[in-house]
Amino acid sequence: MSHDLHESLRDNVRILGDSLGRTIADDLGRGFVDKIETIRGLAKRGRQGDEASQRELIDYLRRLPDRDLLPVTRAFNQFLNLANIAEQHYRARFRRVEDYRPGSQPVLSELLERARQAGNAPRKLVETLAGMRVELVLTAHPTEVIRRTLIQKYDAIDDCLTAIESSADYPERGLRAQGRLEELISQAWHTDEIRHERPTPVDEAKWGFAVIENSLWQAVPDFHRDLDNLLLETAGERLPLDAAPIRFASWMGGDRDGNPNVTARVTREVLLLGRWMAADLYLRDLEQLKAELSMWKANSALRAEVGDVAEPYRELVKRLLARVEATRDWAKACLEGRSFDDGPIIESRDQLYAPLLTCYRSLCDVGLDTIANGALLDTLRRVAVFGVTLTKLDLRQEASRHAQVMEELTDCLGLGHYRDWSEEQRQQFLLEELASRRPLIPRRWECSTESREVIDTFRVIASEQPEALGTYIISMAGEPSDVLAVALLMKEVGGRVTLPIAPLFETLDDLNHAGEVIDRLLALPGYRALTGDRQEVMIGYSDSAKDAGQLAAAWAQYRAQETLVEVCDRHGVDLTLFHGRGGTVGRGGGPAHAAILSQPPGSVNGSLRVTEQGEMIRFKFGQPEIALRSMEIYACAVLEATLLPPPAPEPHWREEMDRLAEVAHRAYVGVVREDPDFVPYFRSVTPEGSLGRLPLGSRPTKRRQDGGVETLRAIPWIFAWTQIRLMLPAWLGSGEAFATRLEGQGGLEVLQEMRDNWPFFGTYLDMLEMLLAKADVGIAAYYEHRLVDEPSLKALGERLRGRFSRLHEVVLSILQQQELLENTPLIRQAIEVRNPYIDPLHGLQAELLQRNRDADGAISADLSRALMVTMAGIAAGLRNTG
């Protein structure tokens, strides 16, 4: 690809930018548009190295009257969102757009051919895909800045671009699409981009369901149809009807860790909403099938089901329609607190699937395969993936909350104090109670409000169909008793429903001991009897990086996975690893294909769970074509990691990583934990103090309102550094580690050997390179100049920028490049085209932060809103928030 943006992408950026300019001119006058152009021109020349333009830009922004600050920030924010639409549109059209290394994202047909050439029989390919279990878990982490009403307008703008591109032979169609585009951009400009209230957990769940309705509902059958066609061509058979290589789960309304807004009542409401939405979507499918399945030829099984009627398929579909309609009405009545007794409802996936399968088999038996494999097959595929709940709802709670229940319970029963017991005593008590037939919890037990909420959550589990629920995740898990306590509560309160229980290992110390904990857990005979020889373990990326620094955390995550694979193999247990990745590099983010193939060999064995959070859900799954490509990327990566796993690292590579991680960890801790100036610097130079006012999500920005950086959640921690373009959490410590190694004999050679031959290390460097390209120490220095007065804090800032510059040098040395992103020009161009629009937002944000501090937080509502718009705009421009 040339170093210029692809022509169609450039054209669409221009079309959208011109339309926005006309909209702003209509609203605020041509003179205001000239101001915007002046600011953009200065920013562009400043980016080209003109220092006078850089100074003039800052002076110009500081002279802007208060009345202009909000519309100026909105103009640049809006353009960056439109640029994102153009880029997403481009990626949907051109599936070979490479995000990172050339050839890093193959299409599925090429991978199937490679697997076949490597000696995998066609039948093996079908069996592997049919047995694959990839669950993408939509989480409600507060990183989606854009309001849902604007997302809907942006999706419609994308449709207009498609219509304009396909109107070459129909100019009147193009004119209509252009008119609609102008209308939508005007609507977006005149819509408040910032929420005035935080979304509730139920709002977040509705947003997640909307992604399924508007995108995945179409993308899922399309993905399976493409897969069927490939397998027919490669192996001569289709994917089995009930196979669902990729499924969806959710944390929205189930993740109560540190979020007091997620209660048992909220979880129950979200589960009912899922049932209501699923029934509503299936009704649309069934109405279409009723209209289309007018055939009279049928096999004896269908005739026996419906009797001797003229249109047997329609008859069966009509009966199913009535039950699904009753299910929708039941869910609605429950949500409104009304009783419902209007007939039997659909309780399980099979009650919906079985009648449709009867129709499918009948059509095939009488020679109507073409009809069977049309809309009916699409609906069968949807049922296989979405069930009757749309997603499986995971539940997450912190280990200490379960320990609190046990402490209150043992105290109430006169058994002692659970919290004072040793780990062995806890395990013995929990295993004995798990084996006991008598109830442990008194019927009228008076416990604390906190413990009552935990008990009520398990009551919700007991009241649900098992297929509605996913995994129970225990955050801050550190001992086998943390898992046994949940198992006991599930037995005591959850009744017949037993969910997989996944301990989440997230700090550096927890990751280092994860294998030992699971080994001890699986050695307990009473526990093995509960699990069915399956174990799920969640690996935390966000908090481990915040705790230890990115490089040390990445190596700890890798080693933890290796150990867990070995432990579970030794115990004869099937392991599923659940990767708690965020959107940014600092939270384990990055391209899915590269991330999966960089895992230890054997850790992805046809089974994978991974979080998709915040704005990444929209970027990956917000539109059917993009969602289709994202699903293909996941299927490719898991298939390749299963059939063509990466090599195990050489022993001397492991030794290198041990040394690198040790140096990086020491350097990171030396700054973040041990430098007394670090926390004051962080709070002075970043907008961390203002983040709480940005109504991103339902969760508080801190786990506790007192305390320092350690209480700050990983998302606002990274959000704050991203806003000033220093990106510190994702690189601090890496520069010292690499520089130390380059000074030693043969250091460069071994690092390059690791880069070329070890996917884990190569992917780490790719992510670091992209991050360095997005960072900008000059912008960080300006924030410091405007917001920091204390000389010792300024000195710390200078040292941090020096560390960054050294890292920049050593990364280029290892990569043997003159500049960053030499081999990925599309990403470099995407960053460069956005910078003249992001730079003014940085200047305005620093100015607004200073004015806010000067006014002790009492700036006007318009200026406060302008500050929030700068945060949203910078996040949109950098394509990641937290």
TrEMBL record:
Record bears the keyword Cell membrane: no
InterPro entries per record: PEP_COase, PEP_COase_bac/pln-type, PEP_COase_Lys_AS, PEPCASE_His_AS, Pyrv/PenolPyrv_kinase-like_dom
Alphabetical list of SUPFAM superfamilies matching this protein: Phosphoenolpyruvate/pyruvate domain
One CC-aspect GO term: cytosol
Gene Ontology molecular function, alphabetical: magnesium ion binding; phosphoenolpyruvate carboxylase activity
Similarity comment text for this entry: Belongs to the PEPCase type 1 family.
Protein name stated in the entry: Phosphoenolpyruvate carboxylase
Gene responsible for this protein: ppc
